[in-house]
Write a structure and sequence with these properties.
The protein has 6 helices and 17 strands. Helix 5 packs across helix 6.
Length: about 350
Amino acid sequence: MDVKDFDYDLPEKLIAQDPLEDRSSSRLMVLDKKSGEIKHTVFKHIIDRLCPGDCLVINNTKVIPARLMGTKRDTGAAIEVLLLKRKENNIWETLVKPGKKAKPGTEIVFGDGLLSGTVLEVVEEGNRLIQFRFEGIFEEILDQLGQMPLPPYITHQLQDKNRYQTVYAKHEGSAAAPTAGLHFTQELLEQIHNKGVDIAEVTLHVGLGTFRPVKVENVQDHHMHSEFYCIDEDAAEKVNRAKRSGRRVIAVGTTSCRTLESAGAQDGSIRACSGWTEIFIYPGYQFKVVDALITNFHLPQSTLIMLVSALAGREHVLAAYEEAVRQKYRFFSFGDAMFIE
C-alpha cells in the first residue's frame, strides 16, 4: 500500500488559521461509509444524527503549554524546546530547535532563570532528554512561560489559549489537541445527553508522533510513536452497554478511536485499563468497537487520513475530500468537521 494512495490537492487558502467564534457553527460533512453518499450541514445539527442509546466517546486530555522559548546559558543563543513526554525526576523527552545547539551537557535557561534545564542525551528521532530545575510547581511555571504548541501550518497567533482546548479537557498531558472535540460546546453536550445519548470520557495524551509525516513509501513500514491512554470503569460500561443493546459507539476524533480499538476485545467489548498504544489503523483494519466517527479534515498522506480511510473506504474518503475542497470547507485543526456513519 503506497503512501501516495492517500494524497489529495489542497489549496493553502483552505487551511483554517483561526477558530470560529462559535465552536459549533463550523460546517459538517456527513459521509455514509457504505454508500459514499455525502450530505452537508452545520456541526450543531450533529445532534440530529445521534440516537438514544448511542455512546459518544470523547477524549478528555488537556493540552499543556508545551512550547518553551529559552537561551543557551553559555552563549545566549535562542533555543526552542517542545515538551513531548514526561519521564521521571523532572526529565522530559523533548523536541529541540535547532537541535545541533543542544548537545548533551547543554544548559538552557527559560524566563530569566525561573526554569532551567540540562540536555542529558539524544534519543530516538533526534529528540532530547532534558532534566529541568525549578522552585515551586512545574505546571504553574509552565503556564506562565509556555505557549500552546500549535501545528506548523497555523501561522496566526492564538489570542485565547482555551480555544486550543476542548470544553471538556481535564487531564493534562497532550502536546496537541484532539481537534474533533473543539466543535462541541457545553450547551450542545447537554442537549446530546438530554436526548438519551451516553457520553463516555476516555483519555489519550496526544503526542506529536500522530502528526509526523509518513516518510516511508510502503504504509505498512511506518511505525507509530507510543501514547498513554486510560479507560475507567464508567466509560467501559457505557461503551459495553451500547454494544449489548445494538446501538452505535461513536468516537469523537481519531484519538478516541485509537483508544477504543487499542482496548477492544474481538467481540467489541472493552474493559477498564490503561497503558501505552502504538496502534496504527489503515485500510484492511477490522474495527472491533467503533461504528462511527466524528473527525476533522486531515493532512494528505497522514496516518489520520489512513485511519478514516480504513473506516469509510479510501475511494469514499478521497471523493469526500475533493467535494470538501470544491465546497471550500476549512481544513485541519481549526477547520470544519466530518461525520462518518
